[in-house]
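Data card: per-record layout.
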Amino acid sequence: MKKVIILLNVGLICSVLMQSCTDRTCKNQSEITPQIRYNQMQQQLASGWNTWDTRSVLTHVFLPFGAAVDIQLIDGEGNREGKFLVGSRSKNAPILHPGPHTFDGTYTDIAVEWKGLRLRVQSAAEGNKNVILISPLEGCSKQGKIAVRPQGVWFRVNRTEVSQNTFKISPFGEDFSFKSVVKGEITETNDKDKEIILTTGEPVAICIDCEMEVAEAKDFIQSHADAFVDVNKKNYGQCYEVYNAMQNVLAWDNIYDPTINKVITPVSRIWNVGWSSNPTLGGFVLFCWDTYFASMMLSTGSKELAYANAVEITDAITEQGFVPNFYAVNNYKSRDRSQPPVGSMAVWMIYEKYREKWFLELLYDKLLSWNRWWDENRQTDGLLCWGSSPFEKVTYRWWETDGVNATEGGALESGLDNSHMYDNVPFDTLKHQQKLNDVGLTSLYIMDCELLAKIAYELGKKKDARELKTRADAYSKNMNKTWDQQNGFYYNRHTDTGELNRRISPTNFYPLLANIPSQEQAQRMINEHLFNPEEFWGEWVIPATPRNDPAYKDNTYWRGRIWAPLNFLVYMGLRNYNLPEARKELSEKSKNLLLKGWLANGYVFENYSAESGTGDDVQNSDKFYHWGALLGFITLIEEGYYK
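The structure for this 643-residue chain is written out next.
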């Protein structure tokens, strides 16, 4: 066996990571427009080493050049795997257990299992220097191999050269190159396929812009690991693992997408690849309320990523003036339907933390357009209904036809796709709405009006603020139609009969978000419904379907399972009232649910069983979906770690 060191000598390149602005107006920071500020911020985000490529978490890319080191595995029979996605359901897909991942990519740690191979892959970066350490874990087959492949990604021109024990990546048009030599047991150097093959029997160190022995590489990695732990323990104390779960699912899901030239944080990488029309590029999909929730959580540890996600989903606003249910590559978006209006909530929360008015200025007009759209297109009897409006096709893809102006499209707009609440609810194809006043939607809309009015006041737009307050007051008064004094609860209302719909979910608690109930009413809602074990309470909470509804036993998607965004919105409503016990109990139960999966396997699930508290008991629960971390965000807020 030949031992070789791979060293990438990058040179001084930091000066090219961000284009300098020579325009006279850009010299005075106070004169830079919000859009210019945001563009500069995105340019800064898209720089340096990180796991940027959505196709594999084991591909390390240096931006802006797209110079990459791709790690692939080969089993004892010569089968090769190059796509590593957390939670992939593909046949014989690798199993990954994510660990720490800083937002800026300066430290990452993940375990991989595939066909007898069991490896730990860590990386640590400082500026242009990056060290990737691949270590065999107990029980790892020695028959497998590791392939290290230098390349350029996303059609960015990078010339690669591989010789006996070195490789080099030269970005086109630049006067530097990445020169490399690897530490480990090399079995083959393939110049034709541009790769170096190593055994799995001992650690492999890939050193970029530095030269280290394996022992030195281990020490370098460990110093970054220790720093990660020290910082998070210092900042989050007893909530250390809660924050880790939230940070790491967001950081591993964070990508750069070359089709829009932006850094974004989609819900999971497997969703991105599934929506891509060009697997070479990778692709992306952003969902509306999912992305706003991500921006809220990201504001805990990364202002720039919080801004980026709030801006990108808001900028996806349709020609009709609403933020769509989804936005994907090639301008593919749901032009028939929106999703729960939590945009102003996210933007205001982020603004309260960082107090940068340009962020509000950048998004305000689009948020106002979206707010007005709800009133103009989804209102019946002074309350809102979920809907789906016909439109002229743009991309001629699946969701431009399926379910449009029908019950399915309306249910999808709710974000609670197959919820029992919408079973057998008729659809008005002339008004493009379900014939059901929705308590959850109307409450979220009132909250949106109130928070957007705050933003308007902050920006000196007093006329808009009065308009929004007037609209909030009108909808608030009409919410009385949905209160049932006998049962102490708000119920959805059939617009064709005026009758209340007794099929409930956690969204029936959303009037708390809008400050609709009195303290007495709120106390009844909690005591008689939330704390009621026949409806929502139990060891694992809050099920999307009450336990006494026949659909609870379905245990599929929004029928019977627990979803973090529902817990989060109910918790945020509780904060508007003197309900300390309910807040504390919901926070504790939410935290326990998150940590159950995180501490066992490094997973943060899309949804959870209300019976067992597990997330991988069904196929339609992604193992690594970032809004599951809202369960921990609740606790960070409750315990005072989010300020």
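Known properties of this structure: The longest helix spans residues 214-236. The longest strand covers residues 117-126.

See the next section for split statistics.
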